[in-house]
Every structure is written in structure tokens, then in C-alpha cells.
UniProtKB/TrEMBL annotation:
Domain RanBP2-type: 42-71
SMART domains noted in UniProt: ZnF_RBZ
Record function comment: This protein promotes the GTP-dependent binding of aminoacyl-tRNA to the A-site of ribosomes during protein biosynthesis.
Classification via PROSITE patterns: G_TR_2 (PS51722), ZF_RANBP2_1 (PS01358), ZF_RANBP2_2 (PS50199)
Composition-biased stretches (Basic and acidic residues): 126-152
Domain Tr-type G intervals: 272-496
GO MF term set: GTP binding; GTPase activity; zinc ion binding
Subcellular location, record wording: Cytoplasm
The protein, known as: Tr-type G domain-containing protein
Amino acid sequence: MPRKVNYGIDYDDGYDDDYDDYDYGYDVEENVKEPSLQDTIKCGVWRCSVCTYDNDDTMSSCDICGILRSPSVRNGTYDEKRTAPFKFDVPSPDDLVSNGLHSSEQHAKAKIFDFKSSRAPSSRVGKNEAVKELSSAKRSDSSHDSTGKDNHNGIVFSKNLEINTSSGFKASDKSSASMAKGRVEDSDGRSVSINMCSSGQSSSSLMPKERTDMVEDGSSLTHGGEGHNLTSNLKNMTLAAKSGNSKDIKANSRAQYKPEKWMLPEKAEDSLTQLNLAIVGHVDSGKSTLSGRLLHLLGRISQKEMHKYEKESKLQGKGSFAYAWALDESAEERERGVTMTVAVTYLDSKRYHVVVLDSPGHKDFVPNMITGATQADAAILVIDASIGSFEAGMDGTKGQTREHAQLIRSFGVDQIIVAVNKMDAVEYSKDRFDLIKSQLGTFLRSCDFKDSSVTWIPLSAVENQNLVVAPSDVRLSWYHGPYLLDAIDSFQPSSRDFSKPLLMPICDVIKSSQGQVSACGKLEAGAVRSGSKVLVMPSADIAIVRSLERDSQTCSIARAGDNVAINLHGIDGNHVIAGGVLCHPDFPVAFAKHLELKVLVLDGATPILMGSQLEFYAHHAKEAARVARISSLLDSKTGKVTKKAPRCIVAKQSAVIELVLQEPVCIEMFSKCKALGRVFLRTLGRTVAVGVVTRIVEELV
Ligand code: GTP
Ligand code: MG
């Protein structure tokens, strides 16, 4: 049976370059100068301090973003801030207060952070011996640390650190020291503290909606006597070096990391390479049917099971969904005939252990599709060849073919198979196939897919044509290319970061009735084996790997690229959450809510304004976010700044922006870890931009 993944997001080599080289065919503003003071001062207007829109003098609030007019602004004059590149790095109402803004500004700016709160009640955490509550959290040395949370409670993981606590105690017990090892002392012996400042909000925002619900259920659980709020333990953690820059320290030590011998694969161990294969495409194009059919043909679904699916689906009047039922397990999915969550199944080709990530096509479940596709090394883009259906999928506003293709490419996937399915419905017409190839091919090229990396295959999942052997139907005699399984074997294996410290974004969490907890996902770097110590972020708990499972089979070692379930012990199950990351104990992933991104606004997307509220996606984390600053527009080809502090970014434009998330997420700069540094911005049910993290403005861990 497949493992279903509720929600979640990966990436490739050379993406950075590709991103820069991405030819989106948009016009670049040439010779754009930053406006001079003279340019910007006009009589009868006042410029909004947030989105920089020039409002009529009669307006008391900004016409674009609703911000109240600053009392310091007078007709035709600007305060100092306005002539300098706009700076707005204080993301919450609390922070505004700490900045000493005028009350009207506070009010106005607070308004734009008025996220709808869908937070789960705070969960309670157990007694964590490595964590001690502190009253005087040490501040990050970041110049952006203007959060004004000094008065909040803090928690510090410490080794040999002198720490003030609200209750007056010092973190000094042994487990604290062992847990924080490496996190508190860098390779040069400089000590580093990790502060966690409580703000009383839940960290469950890191989790998918479904998972959030799960935490809500367990939120009343209190372990131990301390009853810390989960959030106060998880969020607002700050890694600060006592001396020097903590980011440099981390970078240095990462570079110095030496993998152990067992981490590196030996060819003889396993002749098949792992391939994480996302099956994507417009709703109802036949992704699950194709996946189910492949599994059946390759013996992963027995005849008996298939017979059961056929019988049951017929009884529900859904006979045509028999193969899809192997993947669509839930009653709702079966009843609606729509995949809602990603199904993870496994099959072997001649060359690969293939992890099949059957994604939902319906637009409502794009966030789930992102979760699955983020792990992909390669993808099959399934197209419904039927008359009208291909066209519906290509529709710019309603179709998902384009959106999925763009997302997949921005995840770093550069090799795809376009499976032109349901060819039986068009009599295996070569003309239809050619038309689809021509129209979609143009679009794929515009998304930076190289022709040589795209394989086009006409097939029929229902009639079993061109899947695991060459087609038998004479109407396909015009086709001379590879069959589907053949084409899967032609994918190039992805390069893997075996020799880097462990990083596994947690895609899903499985809890057994016996209280065991497993973190599922794809290892992006490093390796683990039974007995390994792992750092579970963002809770920063250390857990021990009890066992590893791949495709329901126990395995001894998992390495970069492997998609596994890691059974952990020595940790409160509530601290293992989707959107979190398993790390090497000495190399914690960053935890942050204020990020600088390089983004590309997608073709047809609504413009992004200063103050725009968006949904932020990165690996398996999802969070509400707000555009705090649009620093510059970029030339998509050269990456050079073409305009500073623009008012908005429109479709096909690239820009550097600062984003402030409602809650912090586990994240890395793209230059450090591609998988954890890619982001997607969505609003109103559409993906509006793709991008990469270029800087963590304020790192909390
Ligand atoms: P979502 O996951 O909800 O996006 O749908 P899907 O892409 O997984 O499609 P699914 O496999 O559920 O199939 C949708 C419908 O298409 C079902 O009725 C299938 O029987 C039908 N279908 C799938 N493949 C073929 C095919 O090769 N030919 C024909 N004629 N119908 C097909
Ligand atoms: Mg499906």
C-alpha cells in the first residue's frame, strides 16, 4: 500500500545558474536610475512609506496598501527614510513598538500583519533536559535583530555558557552539554548560544493543515513537570556567537566536515540507484491510473489486490478508477475520484529503485503536489490527449499543466517525460500527439527545459499501450521511441551530497499506537544508520535512530537521495513535525522568519506589492508571509539591478525582496543547501512566484 503524504516540498544542481539564465522573455528596464530626491518630490502627493505609491494629498491612507499616512510627512516633503532605499525590517506589531514608531504608524503597520490566525493552540512539551528557560535571552548579533523581544522568556542550549534564566538557574546539566555540542562551540572553539524566546505562539504553523490538526489533538498533553509551551521551546531560537559571526562559524565548520567511511556508498552494496519520480499533471489526466497500472504490470500489485480494486470501484460506480484506487486510498479520494494527497510507492526498473510520488492534479491541492514534487529527481508530466482536455490543462488560469511544469522546473527538476496519455481516446492519432508536442514543447522551452531532456511518449494507461513494453496497437505504429519504463531508465542519476552533514526535511510523520514516531522524507545530504544521533529541528531535541525503513523493508543505512521512514527514539513525538528537518547534531539548519529572496514572478501572475500577503512554501514548510521590502528589480539574464526600490514586481520580472514570515521556519540559503533554499509564493490558489533564499536576514537558529 502506498504511504500517503498530506502536505509538504526539492531541488537540483546548477539551479542557481539556470535560474539566472532562465529566459522568460520579458522586457528589461534599461538604464533605470534610482529616482533622485527631485524626481520623487511632487506637490500634492505623499509617498506611502511601505509600498512607495504616490498618493493624492487628500488621501489619509495609501490607496494601494492601506497604510495610514505618516504624520511626519508634509506636502511635497519627505522624511529622511524616503530618499534612502526603503528599509522595513521589523515584521510584527511587537517589533513596531520596539522600534518606537509613532502610534499611528504602529497601528498602520500592525494592520498589514493582521494574518488570519489559524494557529493551533500551543502544545506542551515534555521536560527537556537540554533546554532551560531563561529570562534574559542573548541577542543575536544581527543588525536586523530589532524584534525587541529582550523581555521575553528565552531558552538556551548551552555548553559552558553563563546564562541568566528567569528562574535564576544556569543551564549546566550533562545532557544539555551533549546535546548542544557543536552548536555551542564552533571548530575554532568559539562558543555559541542558541536562544529561544517565547512569544506564546504555536509553531505548528510549520506543519501542513492536516498535521496541525493532529497537534491540536495532542496539544493538551503535558509531560514532565515543567509544562513548557511547545512554541516557547521551538520558536524564536537565535544562534548567536559570543564572538564573531555565527553564520560564518557554521559555514566554516560545514566546509570542514569529514564524512565517516560508512556514509559513502559502495557500488557493490546495491546496484540500483534511487530515483525519486514525481508524477504530475492536470487533474484527471490519468496520473494515478498510470501509476497503478505500472505497479500492477511490474508485480507490485498482485492480481488478487487488483481484482479487489476492480470489484470495489465498480460497486461504487467508479469502475474506471480501479487502477487509481491503488494510490487513492482514502474514502474521500475514492468517492470524489480525485487524488488529494501525494501517494508514495516503490517500483524497480532495470536501473533504478523508483520512488513514485503520485501527486494530486486538482488546483486545490497544489500545496500537496509541491510537497511531493519537491523531492523529485525527475518527473513524468502526464497529459490528457483527449480533445478539449489537453487544452483545459494548458489554460493559463484554470489549467494545472503549466503550473506543474513551472513548479517542477523551479524545484530543480530538469529531466522529464511527457506522457501523452489517453491516446486511445484520440485513436492514437499522430496529428494530435504532434500538436500537443508542438504547443506544450514551446511552453516547456520557455520554462528552461532543454529539448534533449524532455522525452515525449504517446501512451494509454487504460489500454496498456507503451508502458513497460513497446505498443502492440497498430495505430501506434508511427511511434518509434522508447516505451515508458525504458524512458525512466534513460534518466540521468542525480548527484548526491553523500559527504555532507545529514539533512532530511521532514515530509511526514508516522506515529504508531505504541507511541513510536517515524520521520519520513528524502535525505538531501549525508547519511544515517541505526544508532545515529540526529538533531530534530526546530525543537532542537537530539533523538537516536532506532531503525530505518524503505518501502516497508528495514534497511541498515540511508544516504542522500533515499526516501525513507526513520524511526526515532528518545524524543517526544510531538516534537517531530512535518516542515521540520533532521540534521547532524553539530550542524543545525537555520530557523528564521525574516528572509531575503531572489524571486521570479510567473507569467500571468498577479503583481507583488510591498506589503502583499502571500503563502510561503519551502521544502515541507508552509507559512503566511508578508513582503516587507522590494529591494530591486533584476535583469533576468545578467542578474544586474535594473531598478532599486520598485513599487511592485509584475509578471515575468525578477527581483530581490525581503519577506517576513508569520512564524519562523527551518530554512537555508540556497547557496548552502539547494533543497532547503528554494521557495514558492502563492496567493489566491495560484503560484505567483518561485525563488531562492539569498540571505537569512535574521537567523533565529
Ligand atoms: P487527479 O489525481 O485527481 O488529478 O487525477 P489523475 O490524474 O490521477 O487521474 P486518474 O488516474 O484518477 O484518472 C482519471 C480518469 O481518467 C479515470 O476515469 C481514468 O479511468 C481515466 N483514464 C486514465 N488513463 C486513461 C487512459 O489511458 N485512457 C482513457 N480513456 N481514460 C483514462
Ligand atoms: Mg490521481
